[in-house]
Amino acid sequence: MRGGHVVIGYEPNERGTDALALGLLLAGRARARVSVVNVPPSGWPTHTKAAVDAEWVTYLREEAENALEAARRIVRDRAPGQTPPPVGVDYRIHHHRGSGRGLADYAADAGADAIVIGSAPGGPRGHIRMGSTADQLLHGSPVPVLLAPSGYAALSVPRLDRLTLAYLRQPGADRALAFAASLAGRLDLPLRLLTMLIGDAARGGRGVRLREQMLERLRVEGAADLREAVRNVAALPEPDPISVSTEIVAGTSAADALARAEWRTGEVLVCASGQGGPLRRVFLGDMAIDILRASGVPVAFLPRGAAPPSDGRG
């Protein structure tokens, strides 16, 4: 997506600041332009006098303008110190009844390449909590959606370091692999393919032995799948990732498995959409939701059928 367009969903609170931090890192690395978009709440759902309704609409507009002014101040403070900075930043108010659907509509109309949002309030620090905005986006966005963990801005991450693709050989895996490899190449980042083996804990000596035997078989199969995936990446058109590495981790849950992997400060975890959703829309399956909640780094979800990102050069 070098030379592309990143939409950052902003509201004047910590989640908005976290979204700005991640979105500016992504756009700077991609040499992309940024649209900071505020989707104000809709008007009263009941019928009121026209004068009262007009006053409410004016109030919402003023609040949205104040929010974008706050975003401008944050961008002025952060963007000059980035190397390189985004190509350009504009600020938009986009009215819609749903904040997530509003961001998706704006991104589709603007031909954007990605949407970035922050975690909903109330979740654990350093992790991602789904709210209504994320729920709407993660079940219907036409472009990749990136979510920043709570408190991401406070980490002052200087740059993106690596993309990690949660890889499992299944229908749609090759397309997700091609997308992640192309994106890593365009961002000049290394790519890691991470396979997670999830299984219930066993009790008793026999149960433990059987579980270990099963995991060993899965490790062998997973290693073979990863070797083939690396070969497939090497056969893809340029640009290539700086490097491609693989890792297999096992755990009793997504959180347990992710905790056993090594993570860099500027890491982004990439997940493919579930197979139950509509083509070319993001759709979360149960495992993807578990990964989202357990991850301590930003997570990017790819729409089903996602084509490799454009380089913006025509």
TrEMBL record:
**Domain annotation UspA: ranges:** 5-148, 165-301
InterPro entries, per this entry? UspA (IPR006016)
Pfam families, A to Z: Usp
Highest taxon listed in the record's lineage: Bacteria
**Family statement drawn from the similarity comment of this UniProt entry:** Belongs to the universal stress protein A family.
Sorted alphabetically, which PANTHER family does this protein's record hold? STRESS RESPONSE PROTEIN NHAX, UNIVERSAL STRESS PROTEIN UP12
Protein name according to UniProt = Nucleotide-binding universal stress protein, UspA family
Please tell me the species this chain comes from.
Answer: Marinactinospora thermotolerans DSM 45154
